[in-house]
Amino acid sequence: MRRTVLIFALIVGVLGAAVYWLTNRTDQEAALDTSVAVAEAMGDSDTTGYARADRVVDFSFPEDHGPHPGFKTEWWYITGNLDSEGAATIPGQQPGSSARDFGFELTIFRVAMRPPSQQPVRLASGDSARSTWSTDQMYMGHFAVSDITNETQYDVERFSRGAAGLAGAQADPFRVWLDDWSIATVDTADAPLIDGAFPVRLRAHGNNAAADLILTPTKEMVLQGDRGLSQKGEGEGNASYYYTYPRLATEGTIVIDGDSVEVSGLSWMDREWSTSALSENQVGWDWFALQLDDGRDLMYYQLRNKDGSASRYTDGVVVGPDGSTTPIDKTDTSLEVLDTYMTPDGTREYPTAWHLRIPSQDIDLRINAAFDDQELNVSVRYWEGAVTVDGSSQGESVRGHGYVEMTGYGEGATSPTVGVQ
User: Fold this and answer.
1) Is 382 exposed, middle or buried (0-12, 13-18, 19+ CB in 10 A)?
2) Rounded to 10 degrees, what is the CA torsion of 72, 409, 384, 399?
3) Burial of 263 (0-12, 13-18, 19+ CB in 10 A)
């Protein structure tokens, strides 16, 4: 998830509000008051003039690692489970008693405020007719570290204009950044880049936490949905272009309250871009990214209707140790809530334990939050956190780690019911 991973109306509303405010200010020091902007812009879903994900296309790299400004929204999403002794990367091995366990998320979002046809005309000199600080693109970032050992989450949010070098994205060499947060290609003179971009270095910090990590794919990219076209709702174009790196070897440092810890483990990267929103009856989604110790990876998401039921636009994939993929859908899955967590302010109740069954793959898993309170209470409140996995598959015990993202809980949404699938 990542986010994830967040192409839909909840995020678009926040970004749209922020950009509207920023693009109508001319001074560099303008401060962002999202509390007013969100109320004004939630529900803005005008897609006129933007490109749509309405057909299967051929992906090209490194170009598609970069931005797609013709589409309204896109994101670069990375999550991972890390350990100070590297136990998370060793199949079947339990973390040592002295190990520290962490989860992390970094997501950078881009949203276009105007379709290409409405963007300002260039002067004959090639210069824009407006201020250097003006922009048609807005970037938002979410960074979080879950200190699993101490059951504490550190999260922070940033906004910036896609102008004057403050935030942006480029394909070659690959780099996406928001102020001094970044995901960027590591120059490897002794080996060719994987898909024109990897390995990458991730750097982010804030709210007494920081991450500096190197990520290298150990499996090939997975094109989600129909060869990368992932349908999200009714109607042509209500879809995204979506690809995943389900398993990235990760090493580096996590810093908590000034304490630097050497870590290693596994990460997951999602890329999506679209001009899409939740359908009228959809309120949010539950998204699972699981990495099993038998070498398989699993992505599963369900879009939720207002009554709490799963939309028929529910999808997923099982990725084998060799990178082979097997699609799964709503008819082939059973997801039961086993436990829930109420936020301290009493406004949102999130599932925190699940029973996931996929009969066709002989997969039977119990998924548990590493700890309950992993909600990001930022401009859009959602739960994004590390989970542990145990169960069975094909007659063998299986364990693993992963990340779960849940949006659209509270504020009129039907609360989850324990024991209901």
Assistant:
1) buried
2) -120
3) buried
Q: Please answer whether residues 323 and 220 qualify as being in contact, where contact means their C-beta atoms are separated by less than 8 angstroms.
A: yes
> For 102-132, how does the pLDDT look when each residue is reduced to its tens digit (9 = 90+)?
999 999 999 998 887 666 555 455 555 556 6
Are the CB atoms for 302 and 321 separated by under 8 Å? no
Instruction: Kindly state the average pLDDT of the residues 10-28.
Output: 46
List of domains in the chain = 9-117+135-406 (2.40.370.10)
Q: Strands 363-369 and 381-393: what pairing?
A: antiparallel
Residue 48 has pLDDT above 50, yes or no: yes
What is the rounded CA–CA span in Å between residue 321 and residue 323?
A: 6
Cα(142)–Cα(78) distance, integer angstroms: 10
DSSP 273-331: EES----TTEEEEEEEEEEETTS-EEEEEEEEETTSPEEEEEEEEEE-TTS-EEEEEGG
In the block, residue with structure tokens 């679209």: 274
For residues 360 and 342, is the Cβ–Cβ distance under 8 A? no
For residues 108 and 73, give the distance between their C-alpha atoms in angstroms, rounded to a whole number.
11
Please work out, in degrees rounded to the nearest 5, the angle formed at the alpha carbon of residue 37 by the alpha carbons of 36 and 40. 95
Contacts of 255 (CB under 8 A, 6+ apart): 205, 209, 210, 211, 212, 261
Q: Would you state the structure tokens that stand for residue 20, as one six-digit string?
A: 């509207």
Could you tell me which residues are beta bridge partners of residue 175? 170, 184
Average pLDDT on 70-82 reads 96
Q: What is the mean pLDDT of residues 276-299?
A: 88
User: Which tokens hold the place of 392?
Assistant: 């069975």
Under DSSP, the state recorded for 360 is G
Distance (Å, whole) CA 361 – CA 228: 22
pLDDT of 156 higher than 80 = yes
Q: For strands 259-274 and 174-178, give the pairing.
A: unpaired
Quick one: which of 409, 412, 410, 380 has its CA closest to 34?
380
Q: How far apart are the first and last CA of the chain?
A: 21
Q: Global pTM?
A: 0.87
Question: Residue written as tokens 């070498």?
Answer: 295
Distance from C-alpha of 109 to C-alpha of 183, rounded to nearest angstrom: 12
Dist CA 149 CA 85 (whole Å): 13
- Angle, helices 9-23 vs 34-41, to 10°: value is 120
